[in-house]
Amino acid sequence: MHQNRVNKVLQLMAEQNLTQMLVSDPCAIFYLTGTWIHPGERLLALYLTQSGKHKLFVNELFPFADAVQCDKVWLNDNMDGIGVLADYIEKDKPVAVDKNWPSRFLIGLMDRHAGSAFVNGSEIIDRVRMVKDAEELEIMREASKLCDIGCQKMIDLVKEDYDEETMGKKLGEIWESLGASGHSFDPIVAYGPNGADPHHTTERGVHKKPGDSVVIDIGCVYNSYCSDMTRTVFYKSASAEQKKVYEIVRDANLKAIDKVKPGVTFAELDAAARDYITEKGYGKYFTHRLGHSIGLEDHEVGDVSAVNTDVVVPGRVFSIEPGVYLPGNFGVRVEDLVIATEDGCEVLNHVSKDLTIVE
Questions:
Q1: Which among 55, 212, 217, 280 could bridge 47 via Cys, Cβ 3.0 to 4.6 Å?
Q2: What Pfam families does the record point to (predicted)?
């Protein structure tokens, strides 16, 4: 168990007068225990209590779970797992439950009146996970180093006559060669007009033409943590408008990064980029939030958007990714990950952001 992380969860529980919680999300269980358990359709729950008598309810199918440093309650496919779990819960007290637990388990527990009330405990786990500890930050630095290498290799491949789908397959080979654990999300490789779709799906048979923009949005997983970055380059040539839009987006990225420091709200970061793009006449073509938090998952709770008034604190890791998308024409996005520090931020991505034309 990562006891310091568990203690932070227990502290937030205490602030909400909660004595017990069921952690059900495999990602959150890994965060707290250091062990990945993917239960499939089977019941999995980590029961946390203020008394410290934590228990992991896990199926015998996963004997490696014995490594988790707390008491285990072993289940099997012939048992009424919810009935077993209900017997351990303090029925006269509320139960916090985190996200992603199938309704067949939660409703079954509620039908047994296992607690005096059931409350959403997702925010508790999310709040703790938002601020990365030193171990997490070092892993994320290494993940981004690999992502930088992968991104530069992808840029170098733009000169080849590969369709979008093949480029995505080449990236998988790159991650394997670097010792990464595959993609942190489905990679986006978008040529020309396809770049105007921020979440474009790579297509078979789509080849680039001279003058096309090439959006490369990629990330890998390293030691369970995600990386994510975007660079946009141009094939053979770039028009005056493409150059203009690229410089606007890149400068918006830099302006937002320059504003990151403790006490600034995430909404203010979004505004730093969005207001600049709007001032330059392309505001309506910046169609998404400025960024997202990242860690064990590529998109974690806590975005960089106009509606998030939370303030930046040291240890937060998030993306800064302004974009301009001109339908039927081209798109440009420039994305870096940053770690908020005591007096600013550490930028994790170092592939050049100078306008690049690949010959």
A1: 55
A2: Creatinase_N (PF01321), Peptidase_M24 (PF00557)
CA atoms within 13 A on the CB side of 142: 14
Q: What pLDDT sits at residue 100? A: 86
Q: How far apart are CA 316 and CA 135, in angstroms?
A: 13
CA–CA separation, 29 vs 127, rounded Å? 15
Q: What is the DSSP string of 319-333?
A: EE--EEEETTTEEEE
Neighbours of 208 (CB within 10 A): 24
Residue ranges of alpha helices (H) inside the chain are 3-15, 26-33, 81-88, 103-111, 122-130, 134-157, 164-178, 240-259, 266-279
Report residue 270's pLDDT band, with 50, 70 and 90 as the boundaries: very high
- Bridge partners (DSSP) of residue 23 are 46
Q: State the Cα–Cα distance between residues 183 and 219, nearest whole angstrom.
A: 6
Ramachandran angles phi, psi of 340, nearest 5°: -70, 135
CA distance 160 to 255: 34
DSSP assigned state of 297: S
Q: What percent of the chain has pLDDT over 70?
A: 100
96-104-298 Cα angle (round to 5):
65
Give me the mean pLDDT over the 70-81 stretch.
97
Residue in the block written with tokens 């009330």:
117
The rounded mean pLDDT for the chain is 97
**Among 356, 67, 50, 49, CA closest to 232:** 356
Q: Which domains does the chain have, with CATH numbers?
A: 3-129 (3.40.350.10), 131-347 (3.90.230.10)
DSSP 3-state of 23: strand
Q: Which long-range contacts (CB under 8 A, 24 or more apart) does 343-350 make?
A: 343/261, 343/262, 344/260, 344/261, 345/257, 345/260, 345/261, 347/257, 348/140, 348/141, 348/144, 348/227, 348/317, 349/144, 349/147, 349/148, 349/151, 349/229, 350/148
Please state the pTM of the whole predicted model: 0.95
